[in-house]
Automatic annotation (TrEMBL):
Residues 5-128 form the VOC domain. InterPro entries: Cadmium-induced_rsp, Glyas_Bleomycin-R_OHBP_Dase, Glyas_Fos-R_dOase_dom, VOC_core. This is VOC family protein. PANTHER family: CADMIUM-INDUCED PROTEIN CADI (PTHR41294). It comes from the Bacteria.
Amino acid sequence: MSAAGFTHCALHVCDLDESIAFYEDYCGLKFVLEHGDGPGRTVWMASPGSEDDFVLVMMGGGARREPDSSDMTHYGFAVSAREDIDAIAKRAEQEGCLHWAPKEFKPPTGYLCAVTDPTGYVIEFSYGQPLGPGAEE
């Protein structure tokens, strides 16, 4: 049997348009495609240049999530500079969606913060992990 490729992650979201705007703005994802309409409307988004490798699939009509601060379930995005973590956290605090304040962890975790998206999913932003921009050499 050949190895399976990890191609997407799919989420039900409360408000699809609000979620699209959040992931474009906070995470830099770009619109890839859309299909369906009404409650079945589905959108694919990806990091620029990764559209053929991995997408975030979002489907409207989802329930609001209410994770507590100890819930480590999250989606991770790497940034290219430590200062980006502080800027994201400051903005998220002002906008009322900061989930974890910036904190330094031992490798391979690095420096990170987390915000909640419009549905309540936790989104981690990290610097210094061995994956993506800002990866330790």
